[in-house]
Design brief:
By secondary structure, this protein is of the alpha+beta class. 34% of the residues lie in helices and 26% in strands.
Length: 490
């Protein structure tokens, strides 16, 4: 009770200060801000140099005729010193009485160094830029609850330089990815976010309604897979896209409903080529963003350097569970899952096979390439000529999770139509994660698409490299709205 009451009391005090400032003819929210240097540049100035900085007051210490504050902008933090004799009694008193931590100010003064050696500015004049009505949370011992911290992310970022640095790294993560792809000759494209069928993955989509067309549509669940393949048929040979995907599924430390992925498509290449470029990409990200190749995630230690080994999907499940996923019956699979105390949804062969594999992957540190996936769990991948029940597909396994997915893409329209028909039956039988058939895509394949490698990975890799839950690495993850006292829906 006391924390809420104290914050509300301070809000009333600050509102009174705001009114006092306005009555004295001072605009507490001016549009213009004077600044000659960012703080990082002001810190590098020699003594006695004049400068004007702007930022938020983070600390404020009144020592009678002398006051010290720390001002923070995006580039750093710096101490400023106010002397009554230097700026005059009226200006000094106004600052002491009416300006608080959290306010934004512009400070003009000269560079000097304190007797303790701290680089500072001796203030000659100041201007209020924004009056903060609520105090910063460190006055009440910071934000402790995770949900509140994410809800008030602007305060979390303001007070935690490591958190700000993480998002600088995340921006670089995608910059390095984009630069690498372009260096490899890939052309960046944009494909639709709203689709009439969700192709390219198996997931429950978000549904909405297009009023103009009077048509139900879906937010995409992949980064334009079926669209980028159309570009292969159109004569493009290397395309990629970085963008948002949306899956209306459960949340976990590794999964969110909205996330950023990258997918590429490469004509005249196969999954072997895909594994080669993927290893190079991940190693480039590790070194350019983090300056290392060794990481720890969820209790696993792994090194992305060197050549990655491979494991066989069928053999790994057989070794860990005793079940041959190509020969076992559905009842045998269910019995084994119950014996392992693993819950499963759906009783079709595809779901049971996938659940058995997910049980097994949790023990693999990686990095490894998982290969020889069964066709039943790979509806868009080309079959292996020597065994049509298996596919030319790979996944990157790190810290017990799948962090990337690649294929020799299926370009046989007859085979693709048959697989879509199987997915259609799964949908009709209530499997809402089965893939929606795209019959226009089949028609495109009948016109001809060259042999193509497709690959995708997402921001979950960044979360793993940071060893944090994925929503912690999103600036503004979705949260349920707070119910306020004045909310009529409460």
């Amino acid at each position: 009770m006391s924390e809420i009451l104290n914050i509300n009391d301070e809000r009333e005090i600050r509102l009174k200060k705001l009114q006092d400032l306005q009555e004295q003819g001072i605009n507490p929210f001016p549009a213009q801000a004077m600044r000659t240097h960012h703080i990082i540049d002001a810190l590098a100035l020699v003594e006695n140099t004049s400068t004007t900085i702007a930022g938020r007051i983070m600390t404020k210490r009144d020592m009678g005729k002398l006051m010290f504050c720390h001002i923070q902008d995006a580039s750093g933090r710096m101490q400023v010193a106010f002397k009554k004799d230097n700026i005059g009694d009226e200006s000094y008193t106004l600052f002491v009485k009416k300006i608080d931590s959290g306010d934004f100010v512009s400070i003009t003064g000269t560079r000097f160094k304190t007797h303790k050696g701290e680089e500072s500015i001796l203030v000659t004049s100041w201007t209020l830029l924004t009056k903060a009505i609520l105090p910063l949370p460190d006055k009440f011992h910071g934000i402790k609850q995770e949900d509140l911290r994410l809800r008030k992310r602007y305060l979390d970022l303001l007070l935690d330089p490591d958190m700000r640095d993480m998002f600088v790294k995340k921006a670089k993560f995608w910059d390095v990815t984009r630069t690498f792809m372009k260096e490899q000759g890939f052309f960046e494209v944009e494909t639709p976010y709203i689709e009439t069928t969700t192709g390219g993955a198996e997931a429950r989509p978000f549904r909405t309604h297009h009023n103009d067309f009077d048509l139900d549509v879906f937010l995409r669940i992949s980064i334009g897979e079926l669209w980028q393949k159309r570009l292969m048929a159109a004569g493009f040979e290397k395309t990629f896209e970085i963008g948002k995907a949306f899956r209306n599924e459960g949340s976990s430390p590794d999964h969110l409903q909205e996330f950023t992925n990258m997918e590429f498509y490469w004509a005249y290449a196969n999954y072997e080529d895909g594994m080669t470029i993927t290893q190079k990409l991940f190693q480039r990200i590790a070194m350019d963003v983090f300056g290392k190749t060794t990481f720890e995630t969820k209790g696993f230690s792994y090194d992305l350097a060197g050549e990655w080994s491979r494991i066989d999907y069928r053999e790994e499940v057989l070794n860990q569970t005793g079940i041959d996923i190509l020969l076992a019956t559905e009842d045998e699979m269910k019995t084994k899952l119950e014996e392992l105390e693993v819950s499963y949804e759906g009783e079709n062969r595809e779901r049971l096979t996938d659940t058995l594999w997910k049980y097994c992957r949790k023990k693999i540190a990686g990095p490894v390439f998982l290969t020889n996936h069964p066709k039943v769990v790979s509806p868009l991948s080309k079959s292996k000529p020597e065994n049509p029940d298996l596919t030319e597909r790979f996944q990157v396994i790190i810290a017990g999770s799948e962090l990337a997915n690649g294929f020799s893409e299926l370009n046989d329209p007859i085979d693709q139509q048959q697989r879509f028909e199987i997915q259609q039956k799964l949908l009709e039988n209530g499997d809402d994660e089965a893939m929606m058939p795209d019959w226009e895509f089949v028609e495109m394949l009948e016109h001809g698409m060259p042999p193509t490698c497709g690959f995708g990975f997402g921001e979950r890799l960044f979360a793993f490299m940071m060893n944090k839950p994925i929503r912690e690495t999103q600036l503004f993850p979705l949260l349920k709205p707070e119910i306020h006292d004045n909310d009529s829906s409460a």
